[in-house]
Structure formats: C-alpha cells, structure tokens
UniProtKB/TrEMBL annotation:
Location of the DUF3700 domain: 2-226
Annotated InterPro entries: DUF3700 (IPR024286), Ntn_hydrolases_N (IPR029055), TSJT1-like (IPR044828)
Protein name as it appears in the record: Aluminum-induced protein
SMART domains in the cross-refs: DUF3700
Superkingdom of origin organism: Eukaryota
Amino acid sequence: MLGVFSGEVVEVPAELVAAGSRTPSPKTRASELVARFIDSSVPAVSFQIGSLGHLAYSHANQSPFRPRSFAAKDDIFCLFEGVLDNLGRLRQHYGLSKSANEVMLVIESYKALRDRAPYPPSSMLAYLSGNFAFVLFDKSTSSLLVASDPDGKVPLFWGITADGCVAFADNLDLLKGSCGKSLAPFPQGCFYSNTLGGLKSFENPKNKVTAILADEEEICGATFKVEGSAVLTATH
C-alpha cells in the first residue's frame, strides 16, 4: 500500500530531511513514485485526493496474514493492512454490522471520536488488538492519521520525495527508489498526525519519540526510537 501527501497536508519531518542531506542520493517526484507503484503492482487501484494526496493499493503478493483493504466514507479515506484480533467486539461497540471489516472499523471509530470532543481520534488506537498498519486521511479537515501496531508485525516505512511530499508504504524498496536516504522505518506502537502534534507513541504516550541518524551502510537514513524501547533498523 502507498500513501503520498503534499506539503499542504504534512509538515516534512526535519529528521528525515537531515538524514537525506547527510548522504545525498537519487530521488524521484511523488508522481513518479505513484506511477512506479501502479506499474509494479498490477492490478492496482489508486485514488487521487485533489492536490492533497494520493492513495494506492494492490492485492498482488499479499500475505494471507496481512490482507490489504481500502474504504472511503464521508470524505474519510483509509488504507489498512493486517488483521484485528478483536474485530468482533469492536463491531459491537460501534454498532457495526457483522460484514464490517477492519478498514471500515477504523473509519467508523475515527469518525465517532472525531465528532465527540474532548477525545482525540488517536485514542482509538489503544483499543485495536492485532497486527496492523493503516493510513487514514480525512479530507473534510485535511487531517492525516498513520499508525503501526505495537509489535510492528506489518512493515511500514516513510520518506520524503524529491518534490517534498511525504510517502508511507509497506514496501521498503519502492520508497528507497524515490526517497533516497530521507527514509526510515515507521516506529511500532506509534502514530503520526498532522493535527495532533506529529509523531507520538500510543503504546507509551508519556514517552518521547526521537530520531537517530543511521549508519552509512544501512538502507534507511534514520530510525525512530520511543524512549525506553529498543531501536529498530532496516537493512537489506
């Protein structure tokens, strides 16, 4: 799956900029990244959200333990990969039908919390049990919410394209070709929100998330660490 968002939506993470500046490497524009994903993931489905972003996914080479899905409702768009262990219970909690899958559950729970102040939409993450990663964009508020499960069982990476867009994908090689060293694994148990203060840990909300520049031989230019946890690196 792939989500790409312009500078109108996402403030480019300074840590990823620094990583790319330290070791300059080839990058491509966001439009080329999307085109490459579509060409390499036949059959693929893509959705352009005006000038704000682009979402794309494919069932090609999909793991049976990490199915990918997409849904859109009330101007909320979501890509989801993985499986929720407590989907049945959460369906009941939100009053959803038995046919509602994981991606619809995420949209409905996000929407319910968005419309019920003072709880931030990210508070739903503590109730999701399973292996998952998702990218959700609320067009009505230009809000982005990206999250990875506490065990990091579903791979997720993020980086910066040549034209300053921020991209999220489950395919490291795909992003490497467009983001160069401005690339990092998305930290497990964390979420990114452009309206809720950037990158934070939902597993350990009181712990700060910091970036560490990676060694030259590593594929990614940086890693992110939640204080009190181990550092994740991506090598190839």
